[in-house]
Amino acid sequence: MTNRLSIAVAGAAGRMGRQIIGAAASRNHQITGGTEAPDSPYLNEDLGVLAGIQLLGSTPSGTISAAAATADTWIDFTLPTVTLAALDGLTSSSVKTVVIGTTGFSSQDEEALARHAERFAIVKAGNFSLGVALLSALTQIAAEKLGDGWDIDIFEAHHRNKIDAPSGTALMLGDAAAEGRGSALEALQSPPYYGPDAKREAGKIGFASSRTGDVIGEHEVRFGSDTELIKLSHMALNRRIFAEGAIKAAEWASDQPPGHYGINDVLGLS
């Protein structure tokens, strides 16, 4: 039986924050707090009301220390600066497990996350969907088996308010493709195809992004040769899949020592 977790949620009134609260409550975990900006109109709203479920008896806070006062688990799908500030604020808390769905971290940010992994069991993923995890595994296999003679391009589409591009999921797929080719993505990633001299460079991994409407998330990996085209794709139909994956990750990480983990570790795909 899974231990009951005490969970605090960053950005509790946001779209993902509300989904996470609902998913956690459905699995009988305790929602002990959450954060919102100090000027947020939701600071006095019950977290359960925000999530569209029963009253939970807790409201968002404008400070990390208050939000995490009785939590053992922190779940964060916000922005890199917000996530890193939260981790700094959690160092003296009782939180042991951190689940991060935030994307857009720089290389310096990643170094900071690695330092925090000495204190917390951190599960960080560009996407917490089971389907995307399997897509990533298939991408790595295909890249390895098809070889360098096949072009690889990754397409992604998200809602108009998403800031970072390519998406964290697209980069995760790129990492998988590069690993399949025995290299790092930094060595194989192609700049965007744009302008009069945007010819594809052989062996590189290309990316294309779309930001339109309220698209939750669509990803496709294409492998092309002179005679064949293979497409591997995934479409998210509901944001709840990411929240449910985050809760699964929190449950798994609650039994792990401090360290830096990914969704493949949670699902046993590593």
Protein architecture, described:
The protein has 270 residues and is an alpha/beta fold. 34% of the residues lie in helices and 20% in strands. It is built from ten helices and ten strands. α1 packs across α9 and α6 (130-146) packs parallel to α7 (168-180). The chain is elongated, with a radius of gyration of 19 Å. The model has no long low-confidence stretch (mean pLDDT 95).
Order of helices and strands: EHEHHEHEHEHEHHEEEHEH
**Which spans of ≥5 residues are poorly predicted at pLDDT below 50?**
none
| Percent range for β-strand residues | 15-25%
Considering DSSP H and I runs of 4 or more, what fraction of the residues is helical?
A: 25-40%
Reading side by side through the largest sheet, how are the strands ordered? 2-1-3-4-5-10
Counting DSSP E segments of at least 2 residues, the number of strands comes to 10
- Measured distance between first and last alpha carbons: 24 Å
